[in-house]
Design goal:
alpha/beta; Rossmann fold; 2 domains; 6-stranded mixed β-sheet; ATP binding; ATP-binding
């Protein structure tokens, strides 16, 4: 039996004496599109920061392909991070760099490809996200949806095993949000990555997620884990069923 691609074990998150979440235990399997969900202030983004190594847990561990990230040395952590692609809510593009320069930056920093090879890879990655021909544009010259796609092109520059998304559709209109969802699925299938995302776009949960965890702000722990559609219909937690039933008909604008 293969181990989980990502395993969260006995994780407790806290800011000093302020407990955020405790006793988190769940697996993210290879190829999952995994959503972290829950009510406002439950610790969704904090969990993502722990998974990225931006915060250290008060207790517990996070394992990648069976390797402890918490116990890893700085060099080992860096090696793990090289297998990840990350997009942030704002996109995180460098405003003074063109889309080609933004996308090519990871290739310049972490590979030995020559300029010609990098240019070819950049053109291919931008084409994958629907931005063929936009290499010389700056972020300020394109729409918000295009900036999200450009950030995604940079995130997949190194063909990552895992893609992390923090509110990928934030600020987009419903049509652009749906197109981005479709693009995430297409990229997951084409590069075979595992996807982990925090999102407040409720339709995305049912459209693309294959697995999820629900963090409860009141009990400060996870109270549901599994396919969102199954949780909506069969969870033994009323708050989860209500949350997802409301979500399924709410449309845009409700906050996770």
């Amino acid at each position: 039996m293969m181990s989980a691609h990502i395993a969260v074990r006995d994780l407790t998150m806290a800011y000093g004496s302020l407990l955020i979440q405790q006793d988190l235990n769940f697996d993210i399997n290879r190829g999952d599109i995994f959503v972290i969900m829950g009510g406002s202030g439950c610790g969704k983004s904090t969990l993502l920061k722990h998974m990225l190594g931006l915060l250290d847990p008060a207790k517990g561990d996070i394992l990648y392909s069976g390797e402890s990230f918490v116990a890893a040395s700085p060099d080992q952590r860096e090696a793990m991070r090289r297998r990840w692609g990350i997009t942030y809510q704002s996109g995180g593009l460098f405003s003074a760099m063109t889309l080609a320069q933004n996308t090519g930056l990871p290739l310049q920093l972490y590979t030995k490809y020559n300029r010609s090879d990098i240019d070819d890879i950049v053109a291919y990655k931008l084409a994958l996200v629907g931005l063929a021909g936009y290499q010389d544009y700056y972020p300020s010259e394109i729409s918000g949806g295009m900036r999200k796609r450009a950030a995604l092109a940079r995130a997949i520059a190194l063909d990552p095993e895992i893609l992390f998304f923090d509110e990928p559709s934030a600020g987009l209109d419903p049509i652009s949000s749906r197109l981005l969802d479709e693009l995430i699925v297409q990229l997951q299938e084409s590069i075979g990555a595992t996807v982990v995302m925090v999102t407040h776009e409720l339709p995305s949960i049912f459209e693309i997620a294959t697995n999820s965890v629900y963090l409860d702000a009141r009990s400060k722990t996870m109270i549901a884990y599994g396919d969102p559609k199954t949780l909506r219909d069969h969870s033994d937690q009323a708050v989860v069923r209500q949350f997802l039933a409301r979500a399924s008909g709410a449309g845009q604008g409700k906050q996770l």
